[in-house]
């Protein structure tokens, strides 16, 4: 509907109810709407207060009355819209005139205009202030003209520029008429300008106290960034001398940088992963666009940002991220600027050290963006608390300590339990909760290993945890790009919590209270660029505490960028160079300004990925120290849909969110204990509870998870129960509305098949026969208000049409035009990390270079491959058989590339091929021959290639007999797994029995092979590229090329300590 209005303009509409006669169209343009909504009598509010204001009620909002009377203590006399001010029959004593908002055409209000003209002619002049319709009325009274807009400006995020200062404000609006600026008399000037469509947003008299704006500074719904205009009006009325408004010359004193040094994040670690490859790549792109020579320091060879490319850094130094090494590069390269905010905590700490040592000043290198003293203020808890006190904001009770005695004193002052954290630490490293002195001492000793200072914080577990991503430029323009809410209550590191954007359980008042605070804090600190502010909010009141401010790009920044389509790192880099938000374009629409707050007509959910099972003696309980190694992001139109999607993304064995059938519940631990303690599987314990009949209230009491979230999980459980009662697929297909409802709520074909006793493909075929198909929707940043120029897409059943053209008619032989679907790596985990993102990005760039349409499917918000600029179309979607088939068919693609995304795409090759998908490159049957341990080992035997003795696991006794025959140790190896999942060396029968059971669980229906383990053997790895050319069914020629030779765990040019003939023999 928005798109139709956008294209055709405003038109008449009506709602029709099935079974009832249609009502006639009603044209509001033919009615005097103001006459219908205006007061019929004169009313006085705040009698006896001063000054005295007359307000013309043209449809005035109640909050205007509250704002005048309660906040500014004026006597407000509200009169009908047609009150004759010149006659003033009620003998109203007044000091100023206010013109309210209202509906309809301003040219119908001649009597109001006449009274305004009378007021304008008084001497001495009495102040006049108008908003919304009042802006048009004041302009008409001045002799200007108005016109009806195509569809008007409506919403709570319209960017407006104050033409006195060039500051841009986010404003709420709802109007369909505008002032023709060209028709203004010489005595009036434009006051505000819409930064998107450049329409008039206000007028001001050149020397008299008359002004008006088109937006609502006081809007109860928010934002209230321009509420100062009411203060300006009241000041005028009181005769106060107005402060001189001058442009700040510092805003235009912009440094010109020729060479900039970017510090990367180095090797990936928990709390600092691939998101900084994405941020750094965006930063380099922005610098190159400005013609700046770019030097990068990053030793991580697996990243996209360290790869040579047209948009990459001019020089890359593969050096440790340490102050001494960075200083060496500075002395060699002589950059005039350095960026330390794009490489996580590692880069930040190095930047702080170089600054405090005086190295940057000596080498004449400027820190771009937020300055080091500001960063230190956010990192040092004591300084941060003092900064917040200056603006009457508070953090949770917190005290620093540099020894155990200080720590105990602080803890007893706050009261147990308390949170212990290491200062300047990453991912909550060295943190935890202590309930007494002994626990405090144990935790403090660990924390002092990582930092010289620790922080003792008030325990706020159970409060809501929220985040806002804030952007500020050098002109003090400030916006909140995204707000996010943690599914889990406070007490779990945000990196280990499910996160939803936008927030789902906040009231409007809570949302804007926290937004207002975020902007106040960021402005007070003086941050330039992007930052993240985290809150704790009492679920039973409006009480909140600021947890921390991250004055750098973070994991949350990457998530917010992908959730909104707003490229935070790119924009932050431009701002660090001195550019302002207004002049930067929205990279999605290409026409609107970057000084805006995105509108989300969808829901986003981030779910962490843990690999705790791969580590012995690592507990499952989650707390203040981050344990997850990756994350996924799901996009949909409701919470149920994104929760189901995210579960499938995080674990390919899951068909959706399940309880009992997820096989993730520990039967040896009471269910309520599994819900009370936050672990990596608590979500599935909660779902099990609902399947067993628990109420939302009962689960809330156990988990403290908000009841709104729990009610959605309960809804999924109820739908599962109802569907499971349907006997067979034919009975289900007789209920198309049930299938549609299940799909709208995120149930997969595989999930539905499990409930009704069928199989995935049969359900898919039945669904397609009923024409129940998903729609392709865009992430366009402005909810379709402006056309989007970027193909950033997701798939949902909650839609009536596709946002982009799909399945164009293209000759099957034109493979380039049909394009290739490139499957990405999915969530990072142990064994599958940023290196597979590098593979995918490299493949996509080569495809586009060779003229192929490149379509990417991935759901990892930390990756460069999910940057919508990298491909022709990006589907932020599941890597499942169902979804890839959907996209393949919707796009009419020429083939799918599964070889550059790691194990997840590889495992899809056979089912995709079986369903008619063209697998590009190595064929599914050949991939299967390599992945299937039994088939591969058998092939080696047939080719007479030496290998350790092996046997496929059929029964436990056979495996034991084989192991005893060849002698322990033996190696247990499941098929189709990554990074040695469930792979173990067993040294006796007891170990073998235990590990075989685990391997069988992981492998599912795939073979598990047991081989003789050769002690003290060298491991040699050989990488190559081969092309097999077929002609009339016969292999004509094989081209091959040696690319890489590695030995053991370190990558070397050639293996050392090996027989000289080894490379030749292996080749």
From TrEMBL:
Claim: Manganese is one of the keywords in the record: yes
Molecular function via GO: ATP binding; carbamoyl-phosphate synthase (ammonia) activity; carbamoyl-phosphate synthase (glutamine-hydrolyzing) activity; metal ion binding
Domain ATP-grasp: 385-577, 937-1014
GO cellular component: carbamoyl-phosphate synthase complex
Keyword Nucleotide-binding applies: yes
Cofactor: Mn(2+)
Pathway it works in: Amino-acid biosynthesis; L-arginine biosynthesis
InterPro entries with a match to the protein in the record: ATP-grasp (IPR011761), ATP_grasp_subdomain_1 (IPR013815), CarbamoylP_synth_lsu_oligo_sf (IPR036897), Class_I_gatase-like (IPR029062), CPAse_ATP-bd (IPR005479), CPSase_dom (IPR005483), CPSase_GATase1 (IPR035686), CPSase_lsu (IPR006275)
UniProt GO BP: L-arginine biosynthetic process; pyrimidine nucleotide biosynthetic process
Tree of life domain: Eukaryota
Catalytic activity: hydrogencarbonate + NH4(+) + 2 ATP = carbamoyl phosphate + 2 ADP + phosphate + 2 H(+)
CDD domains: GATase1_CPSase (cd01744)
Pfam annotation, one family: CPSase_L_D1
Keyword terms of this UniProt record: Amino-acid biosynthesis, Arginine biosynthesis, ATP-binding, Ligase, Magnesium, Manganese, Metal-binding, Nucleotide-binding, Pyrimidine biosynthesis, Repeat
Family to which this protein belongs: Belongs to the CarB family.
Protein name as annotated: ATP-grasp domain-containing protein
């Amino acid at each position: 509907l928005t798109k139709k209005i956008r294209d055709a303009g405003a038109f008449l509409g009506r709602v029709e109810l099935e079974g009832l006669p249609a009502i006639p169209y009603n044209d509001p343009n033919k009615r005097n709407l103001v006459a219908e909504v205006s007061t019929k009598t004169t009313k006085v509010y705040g009698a006896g207060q001063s000054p005295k204001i007359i307000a013309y009620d043209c449809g005035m909002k109640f909050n205007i009355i509250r704002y005048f009377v309660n906040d500014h203590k004026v006597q407000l006399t509200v009169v009908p819209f047609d009150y004759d001010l010149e006659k003033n029959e009620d003998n109203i004593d007044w000091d100023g005139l206010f013109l309210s908002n209202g509906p309809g055409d301003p040219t119908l209000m001649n009597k109001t205009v006449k009274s305004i003209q009378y007021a304008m002619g008084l001497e001495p002049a009495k102040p006049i202030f108008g908003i919304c319709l009042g802006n048009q009325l004041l302009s008409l009274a001045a002799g200007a003209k108005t016109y009806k807009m195509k569809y008007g400006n409506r919403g709570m995020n319209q960017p407006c520029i104050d033409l006195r200062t060039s500051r841009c404000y986010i404003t709420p609006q709802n109007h369909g008429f505008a002032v023709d600026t060209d028709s203004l008399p010489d005595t009036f000037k434009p006051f505000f300008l819409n930064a998107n469509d450049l329409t008039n947003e206000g007028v001001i008299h050149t020397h008299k106290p008359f002004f008006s704006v088109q937006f609502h500074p006081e809007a109860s719904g928010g934002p209230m960034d321009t509420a100062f205009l009411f203060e300006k009006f009241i000041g005028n009325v009181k005769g106060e001398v107005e402060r001189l408004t001058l442009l700040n010359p510092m805003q235009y004193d912009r440094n010109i940088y020729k060479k900039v040094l970017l510090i990367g994040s180095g090797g990936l670690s928990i709390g600092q992963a691939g998101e900084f490859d994405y941020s750094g790549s965006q930063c380099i792109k922005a610098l190159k666009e400005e013609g700046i020579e770019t030097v990068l320091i990053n030793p991580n060879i697996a990243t996209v940002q360290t790869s040579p490319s047209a948009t990459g850094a001019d020089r890359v130094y593969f050096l440790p991220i340490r102050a001494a090494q960075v200083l060496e590069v500075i002395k060699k390269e002589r950059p005039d600027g350095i960026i330390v905010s794009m490489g996580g905590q590692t880069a930040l700490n190095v930047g702080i050290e170089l600054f405090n040592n005086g190295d940057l000043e000596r080498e004449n290198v400027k820190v771009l963006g937020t300055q080091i003293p500001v960063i230190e203020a956010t990192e040092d808890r004591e300084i941060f608390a003092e900064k917040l006190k200056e603006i009457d904001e508070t953090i949770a009770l917190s005290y620093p300590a540099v020894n155990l005695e200080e720590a105990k004193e602080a803890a007893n002052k706050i009261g147990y339990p308390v949170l212990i954290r290491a200062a300047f630490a990453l991912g909550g490293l060295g943190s935890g909760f202590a309930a007494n002195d002994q626990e405090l001492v144990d935790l403090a000793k660990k924390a002092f290993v990582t930092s010289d200072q620790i922080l003792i914080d008030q325990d706020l577990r159970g409060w809501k945890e929220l985040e806002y991503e804030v952007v500020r430029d050098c002109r003090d323009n400030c916006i909140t790009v995204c707000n996010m809410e943690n599914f889990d209550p406070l007490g779990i590191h945000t990196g280990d919590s499910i996160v939803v954007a936008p927030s789902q359980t906040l009231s409007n008042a809570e949302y804007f209270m926290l937004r207002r605070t975020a902007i106040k804090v960021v402005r007070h600190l003086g941050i330039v660029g992007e930052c993240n502010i985290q809150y704790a909010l009492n679920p039973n009141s409006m009480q909140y505490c600021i947890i921390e401010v991250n004055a750098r790009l973070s994991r949350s920044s990457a998530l917010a960028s992908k959730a909104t389509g707003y490229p935070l790192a790119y924009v932050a880099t431009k701002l660090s160079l001195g550019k302002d938000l207004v002049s930067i374009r929205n990279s999605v629409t290409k026409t609107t300004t970057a000084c805006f707050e995105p509108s989300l007509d969808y829901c986003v959910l981030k779910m962490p990925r843990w690999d705790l099972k791969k580590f012995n003696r690592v507990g499952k309980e989650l707390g203040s120290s981050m344990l997850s190694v990756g994350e996924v992001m799901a996009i949909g139109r409701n919470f149920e849909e994104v929760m189901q999607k995210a579960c499938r993304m995080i674990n390919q064995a899951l068909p959706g969110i399940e309880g009992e059938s997820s096989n993730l519940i520990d039967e040896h631990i009471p269910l309520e204990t599994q819900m009370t303690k936050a672990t990596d599987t608590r979500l599935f314990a909660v779902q099990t509870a609902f399947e067993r009949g628990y109420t939302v209230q009962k689960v809330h009491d156990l988990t403290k998870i908000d009841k709104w979230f729990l009610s959605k999980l309960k809804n999924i459980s109820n739908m599962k129960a109802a569907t499971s009662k349907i006997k067979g697929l034919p009975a289900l297909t007789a209920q198309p509305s049930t299938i549609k409802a299940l799909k709208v709520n995120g149930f997969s074909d595989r999930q539905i098949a499990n409930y009704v006793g069928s199989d995935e493909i049969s359900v898919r075929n039945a669904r397609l026969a009923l024409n129940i198909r998903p729609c392709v929707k865009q992430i366009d940043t402005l909810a379709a208000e402006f056309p989007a120029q970027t193909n950033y897409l997701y798939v949902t059943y909650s839609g009536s049409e596709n946002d982009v053209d799909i399945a164009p008619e293209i000759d099957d032989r034109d493979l380039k035009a049909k394009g290739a679907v490139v499957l990405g790596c999915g969530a990072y985990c142990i064994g599958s990390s940023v290196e597979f993102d590098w593979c995918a990005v490299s493949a996509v760039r080569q495809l586009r270079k060779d003229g192929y349409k490149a379509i990417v499917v991935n759901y990892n918000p930390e990756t460069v491959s999910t940057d919508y600029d990298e491909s022709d179309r990006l589907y932020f979607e599941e890597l499942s058989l169902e979804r890839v088939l959907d996209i393949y068919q919707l796009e009419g693609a020429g083939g799918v590339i599964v070889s550059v995304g790691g194990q997840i795409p590889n495992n899809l090759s056979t089912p995709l091929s079986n369903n008619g998908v063209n697998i590009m490159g190595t064929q599914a049957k050949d991939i299967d021959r390599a992945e299937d341990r039994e088939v591969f080992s058998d092939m080696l035997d047939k080719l007479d290639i030496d290998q350790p003795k092996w046997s496929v696991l059929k029964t436990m006794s056979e495996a034991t007999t084989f192991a005893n025959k060849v002698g322990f140790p033996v190696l247990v190896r499941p098929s189709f797994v990554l990074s040695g999942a469930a792979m173990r060396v067993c040294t006796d029968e007891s170990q073998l029995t235990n590990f075989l059971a685990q391997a069988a669980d992981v492998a599912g229906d795939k073979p598990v092979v047991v081989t003789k383990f050769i002690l003290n053997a060298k491991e040699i790895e050989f990488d190559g590229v081969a092309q097999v050319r077929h002609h009339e069914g016969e292999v004509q020629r094989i081209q091959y090329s040696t690319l890489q030779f590695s030995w053991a765990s370190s990558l070397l040019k050639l293996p050392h300590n090996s027989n000289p003939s080894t490379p030749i023999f292996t080749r």
